[in-house]
Amino acid sequence: MKTTAKDTPINGDIVNEKISELNVPVVGKATIREIKRLIDNIERASGIKFIRMEMGVPGLPPAAIGTEAEIDALRHGVAAIYPDIDGIPELKTEASRFVKNFLDVEVSPDGCIPTVGSMQGGFASFLTLARMHKERDTTLFIDPSFPVHKQQHKVLGQKFEGFDVYGYRGEALRTKLESYFSKGNIHSVLYSNPNNPSWICFTDEELKIIGDLANKYNVVILEDLAYFAMDFRKDYSQPGVPPFQPTVAKYTDNYILFISSSKAFSYAGQRIGLMVISDKLFHTKAPDLLRYYSSDIFGKAMIFGTVYALSSGTAHSAQYALAAMLKAANEGRFNFVEDVREYGRKANIMKKLFTDNGFRIVYDKDLDQPVADGFYFTIMYPGFDGPELIEELLYYGISAISLSITGSERHEGLRACVSLVSRSQFPDLEMRLKKFKEHHPVA
Questions:
Q1: Is residue 155 located within the same domain as residue 190?
Q2: Using one digit for the tens of pLDDT, what is the confidence trace for 398-411?
Q3: End of a domain among 298, 330, 362?
């Protein structure tokens, strides 16, 4: 159903040339970074700015509290000093307070470990957990999910399985998870909440199901909180005051949380995040760890084995930045949620622009209510599968990624990120979508 129209917003010859230069079998199935590079190349060659929705990166200025704290730390010479592998004391203390204030969960500062973004936290966890019990060799993904986590498994040579959770909400989730856990090969489960890319949010009932089964089968739950408190249907912004960000940590002690500074604090460039290990898991003894590490205690193996080997810790000055932001949030001086509500407001407008022009929302329901407006939304267009739609939209100066690379069963869909689209681009987006609909009429 590819258009033969000559009056597309981007010159078709330029698009075809740059697709050819990318040299991937199916451009619609390319990785996120490959899509980014392709769009960069088309923009340079055409001189026309895209509506860029492929990258999940912040589109807001970094939190000034963090920037000033990092500058001050650099002026005091921390760039010349190796930080402790498990983090500076100030950050560990404020991280523990933050978890208590915003998730209502107690965790020792010992288990709050800074990492080079949540990406490194995930990589370190996958690497360590796969060596914890020699009879368990597989990670279970509750999909759809961030594609790079599976890429990490491929790089590590580790096994993984997954299922699209959209058809297994509520009590159906219990049966589905148990069908995997009962096989005895799963060492951990990973999901994000809110979910990247569908933006569905697990309820407390569903998190309790996950936690109960983690306890029953001794499986570690990896909860990716990259979009912390960004389900804007509820206000999670007040420290120590309910409601709190929902978390599986309320229902099990077998967990690792990943808290990113990239989205909630718009501090992506400094690659600083937190891996928060429960007290029970941190002190768990697993003799099989001695095959690879000098300690059979999980927390020590993680810090002095895996994290040390990967990077000897994370950037010293960035730790001071994150510590300052967490401290200000803990003291109620910094409402980080209010700053990022703009993503939800933009999503509301952009979704309507798409649906007014023949597109449909793929993951449109969160149980019995409409999915929230947030950092991502999902779209499809009748007559196209996801990879085809990715390629076709290039001629209209619109980019996204295919749901097919996220573990989703909805192969007709795309993930759209709102962060890099400015409000000044909305009229241009509307014009391009109208042109797309004109070229691709739907009966």
A1: yes
A2: 999 999 999 999 99
A3: 330
